[in-house]
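Example with several molecule types.
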Amino acid sequence: MSLKIFKINEALKEFVPSEIVDLEEKATWGNPKRGIWDLPYAKELVEEHSLCAGCPESLAFRYILASLPNPEDTIIINSTGCTSLVFPHIALHTVHSLFGNQNAIASGIKRTLEWRFPDKVKDVVVLAGDGATVDIGLECTLHSFFRQERITTICFDNEVYANTGGQESGLTVKGQIFKMAPKGKQWDKVPMWQLAIDSGCHYVARLTVSSPKRVEKVIKQAIYVAREVGPTYVHLYTPCILEIGLNSDDALEEMRGRDKERFKFFEYISEKAKEVIERKKQEGLI
Amino acid sequence: MAKLGPAGYSPYPVALYEGILTPPPGKALLFTELVDEEIAMREAAKAMFTRENPTVFPGPQVLYAWNEEAKKKAQLVRKMAEVFGARIIPMYDYRPKYPKIDPQKEINPNHPNLTIWHNNIKVCIFIGVHCHYANVALKIIRAETDCYTIALCGNAGHEDATVTLRDQHSEELEKFIRIAEEVKRELKK
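Resulting structure tokens for the full complex:
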């Protein structure tokens, strides 16, 4: 992919809507130091999203897209779920996989890109919900870690199958009652971040999206490590405010509350990953 | 409201279902007949001059300056629209737009009929739209509108367009513009 594809031909520019012209003129392409501080000034890579009002996933999307160090050469693989409502509206290459096989697709794309463009850096990022990552796609997710695929996997954990009416998922906490889980969940939440460490991920982080700066740092670290070392995993708490009975403006408080307990910030960095992160910090990229 | 097209709401790839195929190299498709390229260009130009609200829909391959050919084509598209006195409405990408498109300013391949209906477009040219999305859009337009569609395709053409010209690059576009100017003089437009 080339930055030229965002350059509109002068002869036809006056006919193109302003939001597309803004993508060329005001978005932060070709600048690895881009980040969440650009949000008030630069054109975002997501147009109006179609998630529920106040959904933390929309916050997560905005922070992640603002933090990608190399958006013009980033391919996002997504899967079925609430998140898949947003992908059509982002200005990056995305591939919608079958439900659960997103990490297998990402592995293939990453390997092909490395072969096809050996001299270019191409980041492959998986963005999927808890159902796709941990339930239906657990096998594909873990095997991509075992194979040491150089991809970043980001799980949007809303702890429920939200857009199908509220069924419990593997990441639902024990005892949680939903509309389609009236007796409450009988088993513990799957400790996916721990599984990721045990399966060979070199960088693992667990956090909520209550702090944009922290999300930016984590995403950049995960992508730089995946680029040079091996698989990385980011577990983000993005609660479904509707399914847990909160109002649109309650999401931030909910996440701040969980920051102090089961989503307390946790980070694992392997020795190889530490070297990369230190180097990138010295280069001023993190 | 425009009339419903001949294929109704058929879920099939409509033209193919009726036995219509893309033209072989050097030929063009005019309705259901294979004709010489020049004849098809002349008929397409006549339609652009005589039907209501002629419009050019440039796609990403000519809207963006991704190579020298694209830059040249964009200038030719602009010139072509000026010769026909046609509007230009871009199909700048293929993302479904949320919450809705503005049919006066854009056309989306997932529901191109909205732009055709809203502007009462009776003849249009598709150029620079990637083939798979041109196929989708042309099928919907064929099924749901009475718009006369002209596909200027860089590859093998589109059987769902009313007129299909294949292998259309800068040279062929220049030829089309020359023919359009001739037709314009003939029609005293």
